[in-house]
From TrEMBL:
<feature type="region of interest" description="Disordered">
    <location>
        <begin position="227"/>
        <end position="250"/>
    </location>
</feature>
<protein>
    <recommendedName>
        <fullName>Intraflagellar transport 140</fullName>
    </recommendedName>
</protein>
<feature type="domain" description="IF140/IFT172/WDR19 TPR">
    <location>
        <begin position="11"/>
        <end position="64"/>
    </location>
</feature>
<keyword id="KW-0969">Cilium</keyword>
<dbReference type="InterPro" id="IPR056168">
    <property type="entry name" value="TPR_IF140/IFT172/WDR19"/>
</dbReference>
<keyword id="KW-0966">Cell projection</keyword>
<dbReference type="Pfam" id="PF24760">
    <property type="entry name" value="TPR_IF140_C"/>
</dbReference>
<keyword id="KW-0853">WD repeat</keyword>
<feature type="compositionally biased region" description="Acidic residues">
    <location>
        <begin position="235"/>
        <end position="250"/>
    </location>
</feature>
<dbReference type="GO" id="GO:0005930">
    <property type="term" value="C:axoneme"/>
</dbReference>
<dbReference type="InterPro" id="IPR056156">
    <property type="entry name" value="TPR_IF140_C"/>
</dbReference>
<dbReference type="GO" id="GO:0036064">
    <property type="term" value="C:ciliary basal body"/>
</dbReference>
<dbReference type="InterPro" id="IPR011990">
    <property type="entry name" value="TPR-like_helical_dom_sf"/>
</dbReference>
<dbReference type="Pfam" id="PF24762">
    <property type="entry name" value="TPR_IF140-IFT172"/>
</dbReference>
<keyword id="KW-0677">Repeat</keyword>
<dbReference type="GO" id="GO:0035721">
    <property type="term" value="P:intraciliary retrograde transport"/>
</dbReference>
<dbReference type="GO" id="GO:0030991">
    <property type="term" value="C:intraciliary transport particle A"/>
</dbReference>
Length: 250
C-alpha cells in the first residue's frame, strides 16, 4: 500500500512537471524516482524537444527508455535517429549504426503481440539490408557501383530506407565522370519525373547538371529546378546543425 501511495505521488508530481515544461527538474525527478513508468514519461517528453541539437537530451532519452525497459520505444527512437542521419546529413554509415541498435532493442523487447514484433523485426532487417547495399555500392568500383544502384532502383520498398535521389545522384555523377552524358541525362530526366517537387541540386551538384546539358547542347534553365523545395533541400541544410555525435554501436 505504501509503495502504491509513493507511486501515485510520483506520478502526479511528474505530470505536474511535464505540464510546466521544466526540463531540468523532469530529468532530475525521473532519475531519483527510479520508477519504470516515470522513466518512460520523461523519455516521451524529451522526444518532443529539439533532441537533434542537444547530446544530453539524446543520452537521457536513451538512458530513460533503457532503465524503463521500454526497448520497443527505444528502437523507435533509434529508427528516428537513422532517418535524421539520412534525410539531413546523407550519412548512411551512421544511419546503419542506429538501425542496428534499433534491431537489437526490438529483438530484446517484450511486446504484447509476438506477430507484430516479428513483422517489425522483418521490416527493420529489410532497412538494414538496403542501407548496407547502398553503402557497399558507394564504396565499390565504378562498374559495380552502377550495377548495384540499378538493382536497388528495382527494389519495391527502396524509399523505406534509402532516398531514391541519392541512388540516382550516384548514377548521374558516375556517368558524367565517364563522359557518358547521354546516360547521365537519362537518369536526370528520370529523377525529374519521379521527384517533380524536389530540388535536384540536393542530390546532384548544379555544376554537374550544367556540364551534362552543355555536352548535349540542351539548354539548361536554372528555373527548371523545382521551386518547391523539400525540407531537406540545400537551402534548408545550410541552416541545420549537425546531429550530436552518438555511439550507435559497431
Amino acid at each position: 500500500m505504501r509503495y502504491k501511495c509513493v507511486f501515485l505521488f510520483s506520478f502526479k508530481a511528474m505530470r505536474s512537471l511535464l505540464k510546466s515544461g521544466d526540463t531540468e527538474n523532469i530529468v532530475f525527478f525521473a532519475g531519483v524516482s527510479r520508477q519504470k513508468e516515470i522513466y518512460i514519461m520523461a523519455a516521451n517528453y524529451l522526444q518532443s524537444l529539439d533532441w537533434r541539437k542537444d547530446p544530453d537530451i539524446m543520452k537521457n532519452i536513451i538512458s530513460f527508455y533503457t532503465k524503463g525497459r521500454a526497448l520497443d520505444l527505444l528502437a523507435g527512437f533509434y529508427d528516428a535517429c537513422a532517418q535524421v542521419e539520412i534525410d539531413e546529413y546523407q550519412s548512411y554509415e551512421k544511419a546503419l549504426g542506429a538501425l542496428s541498435e534499433a534491431y537489437k532493442c526490438l529483438s530484446k523487447a517484450k511486446m504484447r503481440s509476438p506477430e507484430d514484433q516479428e513483422r517489425k523485426l522483418s521490416d527493420m532487417q529489410s532497412k538494414i539490408t538496403l542501407v548496407t547495399r547502398f553503402i557497399q555500392a558507394r564504396r565499390a568500383d565504378s562498374q559495380e557501383a552502377v550495377k548495384q544502384c540499378e538493382l536497388l532502383l528495382e527494389e519495391p520498398d527502396l524509399d523505406s530506407a534509402i532516398r531514391i535521389g541519392d541512388v540516382y545522384g550516384l548514377l548521374v555523377e558516375h556517368y558524367a565522370q565517364q563522359n557518358n552524358f547521354q546516360q547521365a541525362y537519362q537518369y536526370l530526366e528520370e529523377m525529374r519525373s519521379k521527384m517533380p517537387t524536389v530540388n535536384l541540386t540536393y542530390y546532384v551538384p548544379q555544376s554537374t547538371m550544367e556540364v551534362v546539358h552543355r555536352a548535349l547542347s540542351i539548354p539548361f534553365n536554372r528555373q527548371s529546378l523545382s521551386e518547391h523545395v523539400r525540407h531537406n533541400s540545400v537551402e534548408d541544410s545550410e541552416e541545420v546543425e549537425e546531429l550530436p555525435e552518438m555511439d550507435y554501436g559497431d
